[in-house]
Design brief:
The protein is an alpha/beta fold. The chain folds into two domains: 187 residues, 3-Layer(aba) Sandwich (Undecaprenyl pyrophosphate synthetase); 28 residues, no CATH class. It is 45% helix and 13% strand. It is built from nine helices and six strands, in the order βααβαβαβααββααα. A six-stranded parallel β-sheet has the order 3-4-2-1-5-6, sandwiched between helices. Helix 4 links the parallel strand 3 and strand 4. Helix 1 crosses helix 2, helix 2 runs parallel beside helix 3 and helix 3 runs parallel beside helix 4. It is globular. The structure holds 3-methylbut-3-enyl trihydrogen diphosphate (2 copies) and magnesium ion. The site of one 3-methylbut-3-enyl trihydrogen diphosphate (IPE) has 10 residues, from helix 1.
Length: 266
């Protein structure tokens, strides 16, 4: 296929985070109900997971249900939850085949016990896989994630293991739901909306942002490749001035990036 392999492996992101948006409008455009858009969106998930894994991406995080999405009609909420349930049931074998490790981030305790059990079962099943991490953000909120992390640090302080004065960024970062994963370096949002909608607020501090007008159910492997090509063109500076440092002969651009990533992840 022509869209394959046009981005050298060294220039690929480690962690791609996607807000899969536009399912409702995709359906409306076709005179269908919103649920049809959500169902069609599952196909895009399948395509993107497969291609990202093939390309050796380390982590793919997908925003599937936000805490603000409880504001939607009850029927749509239960459809989205049951879609997760059925998609997992159907796709688990494929995840195993592709050596993918699954995990969920978000307030899972608020979900139906049956769904919670199923998510846990799927996570356990893929536990020994060694390939790409597929992280599904479900009942997730970035502010919730930071609040939970803060609460955990506060417990440490309360227990006398840590003083309030010695709290660092790393203490908070280490308690986030994604603590052991590399930070997202590429953020994609479909459907032409230009906002974060309470997704990974802390973690996206230095991600490259990529927006496309395409509705999620129309997002293909070729669109993922386009986003990857755009990422490879970006100059990541992390607050430094790459050219000056390079001209002075003291640092290579790659050194600056490695230093910056180490700093952000420390
Ligand atoms: C994204 O599509 C899916 C979820 C939020 C679960 P939307 O349902 O937000 O679709 P639009 O934005 O209304 O088109
Ligand atoms: C964000 O999309 C949440 C998910 C994709 C799961 P929304 O469509 O809910 O976001 P807003 O409401 O347009 O900001
Ligand atoms: Mg939307």
């Amino acid at each position: 296929m022509p869209e394959r392999n046009n981005t050298p492996a060294a220039m690929l992101p480690k962690h791609i985070a996607i807000i899969m948006d536009g399912n409702g409008r995709w359906a409306k455009q076709r005179g269908q109900v919103r649920m049809a858009g959500h169902r069609a969106g599952i196909e895009s998930v399948r395509r993107v997971v497969q291609r990202a894994a093939e390309k050796g991406i380390e982590v793919l995080t997908l925003f599937a249900f936000g805490q603000e999405n409880w504001r939607r009609p009850k029927q749509e909420i239960s459809y989205l939850h049951s879609l997760l349930f059925s998609a997992l049931q159907r796709e688990l074998a494929k995840l195993m085949e592709n050596n993918i490790r699954l995990r969920f981030i978000g307030d899972l305790a608020a979900l139906q016990p049956k769904l919670q059990q199923q998510l846990q079962m799927a996570v356990e099943k893929t536990h020994h896989n060694t390939g790409m991490w597929l992280v599904i953000a479900f009942n997730y909120s970035g502010q919730w994630d930071i609040t939970e992390a803060t609460r955990k640090v506060a417990v440490e302080v309360q227990a006398g293991h840590l003083s309030a004065q010695s709290i660092t960024q790393a203490h908070i970062a280490n308690q986030l739901s994604t603590a052991d994963l590399p930070l997202p370096d590429l953020f994609i949002r479909t459907s032409g909306e230009y906002r974060l909608s309470n997704f990974l607020l802390w973690q996206l501090a230095y991600a490259e942002l990529y927006f496309t007008p395409i509705y999620w159910p129309d997002f293909t492997e070729a669109d993922l490749e386009k986003a990857l090509a755009a990422f490879a063109q970006r100059e990541r500076r992390f607050g430094a001035i790459n050219d000056i440092a390079r001209e002075a002969g003291t640092l290579q651009k790659e050194d600056i990036i490695i230093e910056a990533i180490n700093y952000l992840e420390s």
